[in-house]
Amino acid sequence: MRYLLFIFLLLLSTAVCSQDIHFSQFYNAPLSQNAALAGAMDADQRLIANYRHQWFSVPVPYETFAASYDQKLNLRKLKNHYLGIGGQFMYDQAGDANLNWSQLAIHAAFHYKVSDNSYLSAGLQLRFGQRALKPEQLYFGDQYVDNFFDPDAPSQENFLNTSAAYFSLGSGLNWYLEPTDTRSRIWIGVGGQHLNSPTIDFLGGDEVALPILINAYAMGLLQIHEHWDIAANVSSQLQGPYQEYLFMSGARYHLSLDKHQSMAVQLGGGYRLEDAMIAYLDIFYNSWKFGFSYDLNTSPLQRATNRNGGPEISLQYLVTLVKPPAEFKICPIF
Questions:
Q1: Smallest Cα–Cα separation from 187: which of 111, 107, 89?
Q2: pLDDT (tens digit, 9 = 90+) per residue, 40-93?
């Protein structure tokens, strides 16, 4: 049990000090990447849900859920430019003590039209979060009585706080290219979170600061044929001692090009450096997009996971509003 306690404390300190919530399908969770991506889309409104279940083979797997909504705001005073606003809820749980992380974020972005086909965006994020755990579900070394472990024996270990709240600031920049005569698209940007270095304290007087998280990415779609597209997505996350580099690519085939009954399928794979190989499937139907991916663990942790990383699911729905005509003609009535 001492070894299990040591492993738990190690994972707890790592989770508090370094890694934030992340997804293999990061391109299907834009508000998790960058506040400037709020409203950076072809449609007018967007709803997304993400779910990740990681490491089936370990005693207590990790679970992550996120849901977001964002939309465009076209104001007359902004002329060809526009605003993007959105909100996101995230929840993560792991470990024997149900260490969980609840977060609620609001986003706002200004999209400046650089040319007929491209926008430069700047975004701001306000995030409210809480981390909590249940220490009564843990066992400690002082529960050994006469060289025998007694799970009912009292422990002198004391957690002054079982939950801790914080407020975090984030911001980012993004460049978005959307040509009108092709399906090709490009998003390139960088976002920062926890810029105010908020702190979390479970033990009392021993506050731990959340390091600044930097997300840099490039996401693109290239039309190569009437029915075929090539997708490529690259992400880099830097947070304190933690680093993550993720490369994804795939091919998309359009089964139907009818605007009122469109359908496409995308297959691909990727690699998270020194961690996992990823296979994924995306299905597009009209305004809906369904994504499924699976991680195959390649890190030294594979001895415990048996290479099973875990599945991830995403669901997206886009809303495109009917635009009013550019000119109104008044017909006289005789």
A1: 111
A2: 998 999 999 999 987 666 666 688 999 999 999 988 888 889 999 999 999 988
Question: Where do the structural domains in the chain lie, given as residue ranges?
Answer: 2-319
Q: Cα angle vertex 189, ends 187, 190, to 5°?
A: 155
3-state per-residue secondary structure call for the chain: CHHHHHHHHHHHHHHHHCCCCCCCCHHHCHHHHCHHHCCCCCCCEEEEEEEEEECCCCCCCEEEEEEEEEEEECCHHHCCCEEEEEEEEEEEEECCCCEEEEEEEEEEEEEEECCCCEEEEEEEEEEEEEEECCHHHCCCHHHEECCEECCCCCCCCCCCCCEEEEEEEEEEEEEEECCCCCCCEEEEEEEEECCCCCEECCCCCCCEECCCEEEEEEEEEEECCCCEEEEEEEEEEEECCEEEEEEEEEEEEEEECCCCCCEEEEEEEEEECCCEEEEEEEEEECCEEEEEEEEEECCCCHHHHCCEEEEEEEEEEEECCCCCCCCCCCCCCC
What class, spelled out in words, does domain 2-319 have in CATH? mainly beta
Give per-residue pLDDT as tens, 190-249: 999 999 999 887 766 677 788 999 999 999 999 999 999 999 999 999 998 889 999 999
What is the predicted pLDDT for the residue at 11?
A: 36
Of 213, 219, 311, whose CA–CA distance to 30 is shortest? Answer: 219
Q: 80, 77, 74, 52: which is closest to 64 by C-alpha?
A: 52
